[in-house]
């Protein structure tokens, strides 16, 4: 029985997200499974400015921080055996993975 799985990755590290997608691609290519992607989705940027000096006196200087969340999307037309192998991939702590079966 062939299912369609949609894999979504979100990571603060672009290299970690790309390495997980590369591992998925090697598994699917070794099993001759039809895939679509990986598609890079727009990067979400979270910006925050905080005051350097905690008190009210002194100059008004700010530190600017930015967090980037990189997203990837991939469709896999796979069977149960391939999905089990994909679920065994060691995913780093910086990567969140979501697998949806259709």
Automatic annotation (TrEMBL):
HAMAP family: Ribosomal_uS10 (MF_00508). One of its GO terms (molecular function) is structural constituent of ribosome. This is Small ribosomal subunit protein uS10. Belongs to the universal ribosomal protein uS10 family. The gene is rps10. Coiled coil: none annotated. PANTHER family: 30S RIBOSOMAL PROTEIN S10 FAMILY MEMBER. GO terms for biological process: translation. Signal peptide: none annotated. SUPFAM superfamilies: Ribosomal protein S10.
């Amino acid at each position: 029985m062939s299912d369609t799985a949609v894999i979504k990755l979100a990571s603060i590290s672009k290299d970690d997200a790309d390495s997980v997608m590369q591992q998925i691609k090697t598994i699917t290519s070794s099993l001759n499974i039809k895939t679509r992607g990986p598609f890079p989705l727009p990067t979400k940027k979270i910006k925050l400015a905080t005051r350097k000096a905690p008190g009210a006196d002194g100059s008004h200087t700010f530190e600017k921080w930015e967090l980037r969340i990189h997203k990837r999307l991939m469709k896999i037309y796979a069977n149960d055996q391939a999905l089990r192998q994909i679920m065994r991939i060691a995913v780093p702590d910086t990567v969140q993975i979501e697998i949806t079966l259709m």
